[in-house]
Amino acid sequence: MPVNVGAYRKLISEVNTEKVIVVAVSKKNPVTDIQLLYDLGHRDFGENYVQELLEKSQQLPPEIQWHFIGHLQKNKVKFIVPFVHLIHSVDSLKLLHEINKQGNKISRTIDCLLQIYIAREETKFGMDEHELKEVMLHVSKENFKNVRIKGLMGMASFTEDTEKIKNEFNYLQGLYSNINKDNNLNILSMGMTADYPIAINSGSNLIRIGSLIFGKRQ
Ligand SMILES: *Cc1c(COP(=O)(O)O)cnc(C)c1O
Question: What is the pTM of this model?
Answer without folding.
Answer: 0.97
